[in-house]
TrEMBL record:
Its main location: membrane. It is found in: Cell membrane. Belongs to the DoxX family. Coiled coil: none annotated. The chain crosses the membrane at residues 12-31, 51-71, 106-126. This is DoxX family protein. It is a multi-pass membrane protein. Pfam families: DoxX. InterPro entries: DoxX (IPR032808), DoxX-like_oxidoreductase (IPR051907). GO terms for cellular component: plasma membrane. Keywords: Cell membrane, Membrane, Transmembrane, Transmembrane helix.
Length: 132
């Protein structure tokens, strides 16, 4: 059985890429709800200071923090909680099955962000820049 330990040295880079790609896609969920970009949600833009508006702010600006890799662990903790809340409050009541209730992305985001809480930002982040 071959071992793949030679890949271990690339782990910080893979983690950084996971963080960046997840953040870019996550930000789009926030900008859709806040600004109607790239397309307005079918339900329309949420009114300011409603639960959906606060969620959109977390998605857009929390996603930006994750993208840059700044305060990654605490921001990821908050976003994982937001996604868990979104799943159980808005998706799970529709069906037991994520494929049917549309909550598969919320579950994946929840666990990617939860992973970032424990793993940190990885490469390409402000959190891990070299200090001189």
């Amino acid at each position: 059985m071959p071992t793949f330990t030679f890949l271990d040295r690339y782990s910080p880079y893979a983690l950084g890429l996971l963080r960046i790609v997840a953040a870019l896609i996550f930000i789009a969920h926030g900008t859709q709800k806040l600004f109607g970009f790239p397309i307005a949600p079918a339900s329309g833009l949420p009114p300011m200071f409603t639960l959906f508006w606060f969620g959109a702010v977390l998605e857009a600006f929390g996603g930006l923090a994750i993208l840059l890799g700044v305060f990654t662990r605490p921001v990821a903790f908050i976003l994982a909680g937001e996604m868990a809340y979104a799943y159980w409050m808005f998706h799970a009541p529709k069906s037991l099955y994520p494929l049917i209730n549309g909550g598969d992305a919320a579950i994946l985001y929840c666990f990617v962000f939860l992973y970032l809480v424990f793993a940190g930002a990885g490469a390409f982040s402000i959190d891990n820049r070299k200090r001189v």
